[in-house]
Write a structure and sequence with these properties.
The chain is mainly alpha-helical and 402 residues long. It is built from 19 helices and 2 strands. 75% of the residues lie in helices and 1% in strands.
Length: 402
């Protein structure tokens, strides 16, 4: 397949992804995470049928980087909101605690497993542990929207899970920024490695505030798209020039814009419709880049990361149910639901792959895809059970009231 045909196929997939923006259609034809497109990419990629050659896929790297940047900006704009409402502080604290404990647990398990068991050097173990924690510690509010059709009642378990999933993207993006310090691409640079993450954070915040100011007191939709798209392009370009993982500053751009703009509610409604059309072709290309681990050590790293995620999410789910009286008896299904992972994990995995195209990038991307697939098989099933139980309870209440 030549590059022109491949590009047209990606455009068709993007259009198809736009149709799947409807919750009802996506539940009928697709999965919550979109991992089916990753698997399709594996089948048509260089590891299987070879319709997409490796050099062809790598030729789409500029488009992929722009797509990842846009997805990060959309996640930043939606951060801390679910179902059109701000997530309560109690749920924000719960979500940040879960993601912090999960990330710390996965990082520790992979790092000490690499150093003490696999005898890998610390220079290799640190980025492997950091990347695994970044891609395997989160959950997904998109999966909750998919399971419930975007409708969750107040004080319900599905709304709680959606709120938790909407606040846990911050830590993985911060861990991605730490890659500049832990695993610098250039050993000799004009500025110390620790300065670069700070530059990325400052760049995202300043440009986010600039976009909010440029939009002004009255929102013009035609101007909004050009201003936001231009800002995302600028941040992506500067991040690449400064050797900063591009997702962190773009995420902070979106977050700052949502905090400062008086049009934040309208902006969220506009950008959420662009998420699926951009995500679907990106997932196909991610699948074409996925490679199986090549050594026993790499398989062990993947196994440690996934086992740590399973153990931690079930443990955290049970712990949360003990501290919240309304969740008593829901620990197992809560932990299983937390296994769902969104597109942020795959985007972070691909960013690490491009930044470290050797062993580190290959393993981290495979961990991201594997965790997403497991989350789809286990977490998606749990979320559907929760949604069906809540729907049955609602119908029962209507009958009683009638």
């Amino acid at each position: 397949m030549n590059s022109v045909i491949a590009f047209v196929a990606l455009l068709v997939l993007s259009y198809f992804g736009g149709l799947l923006s409807s919750h009802r259609i996506s539940r009928a034809l697709g999965l919550a995470s979109g991992v089916e497109y990753v698997l399709l990419g594996v089948v048509v990629g260089p590891q299987a049928l070879g319709f997409f050659r490796l050099d062809m896929v790598l030729g789409f790297e500029p488009l992929l980087l722009m797509a990842l940047g846009w997805l990060a900006a959309v996640l930043g704009i939606q951060y801390g909101h679910y179902g059109g409402e701000r997530v309560p502080l109690k749920v924000v604290f719960m979500g940040l605690s879960i993601i912090a404990l999960s990330g710390a647990g996965i990082f520790s398990a992979v790092y000490f497993g690499c150093v003490l068991w696999l005898k890998l050097p610390a220079a290799t173990a640190l980025p492997l542990a950091l990347g695994s924690a970044a891609v395997a510690s989160g959950s997904a509010h998109q999966a909750v929207r998919w399971a419930t059709g975007g409708e969750s009642r107040a004080n319900s378990l599905s709304r709680l899970l959606g709120g938790i999933g909407s606040v846990d993207d911050l830590l993985p993006f911060m861990l991605l920024a730490a890659f500049v310090v832990i695993a610098p691409v250039e050993q000799q640079a004009a500025q110390p490695a620790w300065v670069r993450p700070l530059l990325g954070i400052g760049l995202g915040v300043v440009l986010g505030a600039t976009v909010a100011a440029l939009l002004g007191p009255k929102l013009h939709r035609s101007e909004f798209w050009s201003v936001l798209l231009g800002a995302v392009l600028l941040v992506v370009g500067l991040a690449l020039q400064l050797e900063i993982p591009l997702l962190t500053p773009v995420f902070l751009l979106g977050l700052t814009l949502a905090l400062l703009s008086p049009h934040r509610r309208v902006i969220r409604q506009l950008v959420i419709e662009t998420e699926r059309p951009v995500l679907v072709p990106s997932l196909l290309l991610i699948g074409a880049l996925v490679e199986l681990p090549q050594t026993r050590s790499e398989w062990c790293v993947v196994g440690i990361a996934l086992a740590a995620r399973l153990l931690l999410q079930f443990t955290l789910g049970a712990t949360v149910s003990l501290f919240d009286r309304s969740l008593r008896g829901s620990g197992r299904i809560l932990g299983q639901s937390l296994l769902s992972i969104g597109g942020a994990s795959l985007a972070i995995g691909l960013t690490v792959f491009f930044r470290h195209p050797g062993q580190i990038g290959r393993v981290v991307l495979f961990v991201a895809v594997s965790a997403t697939l497991i989350g789809e098989l286990l977490g998606g099933r749990a979320l559907r059970r929760i949604a069906l139980a809540e729907q049955a309870l609602f119908e029962q209440e209507l009958k009683v009231a009638g």
